[in-house]
Amino acid sequence: MVEAQTRMETPLLIALMFMAALVGYGIDRLLSFVNGMLTRWKCA
């Protein structure tokens, strides 16, 4: 990502930022699911 910044490759930077956002969202959903499974008494 740093290399793309120094070369001013804007489309690649936007694609990498989008991929990072998707990975972050996926991790958030996974941790929310695990939290719901492990702490079922809090959700009820």
TrEMBL record:
This is Nitrate ABC transporter substrate-binding protein. Keywords: Membrane, Transmembrane, Transmembrane helix. The lineage of its organism: Bacteria, Pseudomonadati, Thermodesulfobacteriota, Syntrophobacteria, Syntrophobacterales. The chain crosses the membrane at residues 12-31. The keyword Membrane applies. The keyword Transmembrane helix applies. It comes from Syntrophobacter fumaroxidans (strain DSM 10017 / MPOB).
